[in-house]
């Protein structure tokens, strides 16, 4: 044994009020090697609470009390981030368009083949992996910026605006040598070698959700 841990399989969350369909999908995904969690009612999934383990959601469009579109909205509201695939026995084009606009990965009208559903799941899982990787990169970026002191943050922003050391010193009322040292620390902490790299990092940070940047010395 080399002590290497085997990664857990991604989870397919299945929501369908038809017990036979729920059982059938659950068995199929298990045979394919996925972890599966099945819910016979939309409220059951909402009560489950969001998790961040890798996975996706496969849900029926027409369900009692909460239909698929309403559940999609509720899941996003309470923090579920997994990609969603809709299945439906009804040729509801407007619902499909609305689902896709709201972020669904796919919409499969019944009858569909096992291959079509598995391909949709793989697309959804690929999207989930990409989103998780992007979030990890963004968290690392935020951590680098959070390491700046308030004054280093001011210098960082001014450098990104293209100001020279003497111009920054004049604006801050400090010595040019002090600015030079602070600028060097900024570049070291952010692990960048040029102003162009610094500007690109700031642009990525500024495009990220403001709530997630609350710990930055802005």
Largest sheet: 5 strands, parallel
Indicate the CATH class of the largest domain.
Alpha Beta
Percent helix, as a range, is 40-55%
Strand order of the largest sheet: 2-1-3-4-5
Question: What's the architecture of the largest domain in CATH terms?
Answer: 3-Layer(aba) Sandwich
Fraction in beta strands:
5-15%
Task: Could you tell me the CATH topology label of the largest domain.
Answer: Rossmann fold
Ends distance = 49 Å
Poorly predicted residue ranges: 210-215
Q: What's the total number of strands?
A: 5
Order of helices and strands: EHEHEHEHEHHHHH
- Total tally of structural domains: 2
Mean pLDDT: 87
Number of helices: 9
Spatial shape: elongated
Structural notes for this entry:
The structure is a single chain. This protein has 218 residues and is of the alpha/beta class. It folds into two domains: 11-134, Response regulator (Rossmann fold), CATH 3.40.50; 147-213, Orthogonal Bundle (Arc Repressor Mutant, subunit A), CATH 1.10.10. The protein is 55% helix and 11% strand. The protein has nine helices and five strands, in the order E-H-E-H-E-H-E-H-E-H-H-H-H-H. The chain has a five-stranded parallel sheet, with helices on both faces. Helix 1 links the parallel strand 1 (11-15) and strand 2. Helix 6 packs across helix 8 and helix 6 crosses helix 9. The protein is elongated and about 75 Å long. The relative contact order is 0.09.
